[in-house]
STAS domain-containing protein (Oceanobacter antarcticus), 163 residues
Amino acid sequence: MTSGQIQVAQYHGVEIVRLIGDVRLNLCTAFDRYIRQVLSDGMFANVLIDLSAAEGVDSTTLGQLAKISIVSRDRFDITPTVFSPDPSITRILMSMGFDHVFHILEEPFANEAEFRDWVDDTVDEEAAREQIISAHKVLMDLNDSNRDTFSELVETLECSRTQ
């Protein structure tokens, strides 16, 4: 699998996030900072998530994506769209309940936007732990299956931060 990468673009008022390769925990700090920046600005008409080039997406990243949708819906009355042409990734999205918080299109994203890499070299173990906990709590709130799957992980991580 190709190492993960996150690219972003704005195109005609639409915020576009492209995940490339195997997007994992090591990108969570950078991705969280980007999410907070974009959602606090609120200068967009819609949000698109392009998974056309994604080979894998871990649960932390999925939680962060769900957070984008939940905040976009609650704060801006926007339901983001996910482009997911890979049937295995689409199956994961559906099993996590993403069909309740996203429009999911099972086709590649065709665009004319100019993407830039979103890079953040800041690595803070405690901040990463908090982002992992937060992302998994978002997933747990999507459905009971996710709650069962991730509750032990969240409890373990919450206990480890107090020690």
Observations:
- Helices lie at 28-41, 59-76, 87-95, 125-142, 144-161.
- Residues 30 and 147 are 26 Å apart (CA to CA).
- The longest strand covers residues 46-57.
